[in-house]
UniProtKB/TrEMBL annotation:
Gene3D superfamilies: nmb1532 protein domain like, SP0561-like. Pfam families: Hemerythrin, ScdA_N. Residues 84-232 form the Hemerythrin-like domain. This is Iron-sulfur cluster repair di-iron protein. NCBIfam families: FeS_repair_RIC (TIGR03652). Its main location: cytoplasm. The gene is ric. It comes from the Bacteria. It is found in: Cytoplasm. One of its GO terms (molecular function) is metal ion binding. The lineage of its organism: Bacteria, Pseudomonadati, Bacteroidota, Flavobacteriia, Flavobacteriales. The keyword Iron applies. It comes from Flavobacterium cheongpyeongense.
């Protein structure tokens, strides 16, 4: 896909995930706010469109940093990948991060009171994420896989108890927005995950873990919002349905 100022941020990243690093460099949200066009973002942020497009094109042509073509994957494969890679990541990393943040509040909270807000924001985020992932794994992803099976076998699709997939996805995206907004606050409070110079290694390691967690979360939400969900909705609309 040739990059133009009319493309949305989500479309550009969906076409080649290697460009995500460029948007991150400019603190441009490509996951929760991927619906904005490049023109809109550049105008709002005061970025020269042609320069940003050049950077994006260079990232795409960087053969040393290959990227999976997620857009070409079937919806069932993509749902499995998200669950086994990103859902599992959240589940595995959360306990250690919560423990470390609690320790930082105890050891450094008096000198750095912002740690308490960071801890609260992270705790609220992972609780919401856990509920969101559970709903996806028990309801949304199985239905998406069912849609693919129906298409493959040439069957009729039974209407889900929650109505259309599109309505369910709207709610899911709202939950993503809430978590994404909290992490923007965390990034601001941590000065983009930069630990104060005088602090201990635990402080620095915890902030590095938070930064990695947010980076994985951005990709996680991007794959769902900008690739999986649009593909699944389009597939559902193409099928004949029965009550």
């Amino acid at each position: 896909m040739k990059t133009t100022n009319k493309n949305t941020i989500g479309e550009i990243v969906a076409d080649d995930f290697r460009v995500a690093a460029i948007f991150s460099k400019y603190s441009i949200d490509f996951c929760c706010k991927g619906h904005r066009t490049l023109k809109e973002v550049c105008k709002k942020r005061g970025i020269e469109e042609s320069l940003l497009i050049d950077e994006l094109d260079r990232a795409k042509n960087n053969s040393a940093n290959q990227s999976f073509d997620y857009k070409s994957w079937s919806v069932d494969l993509l749902a499995d990948y998200i669950e086994k890679t990103h859902h599992r990541y959240v589940s595995e990393k959360t306990p250690a991060l919560r423990k470390s943040l609690n320790e930082l509040c105890t050891l450094h909270g008096e000198a750095h009171p912002e740690l308490f807000e960071i801890n609260t924001l992270f705790t609220e985020s992972v609780l919401d994420l856990s509920a969101n992932m559970r709903k996806e794994e028990q309801i949304l992803f199985p239905f998406i896989k069912k849609i693919k099976e129906v298409q493959t076998k040439g069957l009729f699709l039974e209407i889900a108890h929650f109505g259309t997939l599109e309505n369910q996805i709207i709610l899911n995206k709202e939950e993503h927005d809430t978590v994404g907004h909290r992490f923007k606050k965390i990034a601001a409070l941590t000065k983009k995950y930069t630990a104060p110079a005088e602090t201990c290694n635990t402080y620095k390691v915890t902030f590095a873990m938070l930064k990695e967690f947010e980076r994985d979360l951005q990709k996680h939400i991007h794959l769902e919002n900008n690739i999986l969900f649009p593909k699944a909705v389009s597939l559902e609309k193409s099928l004949d349905k029965v009550l």
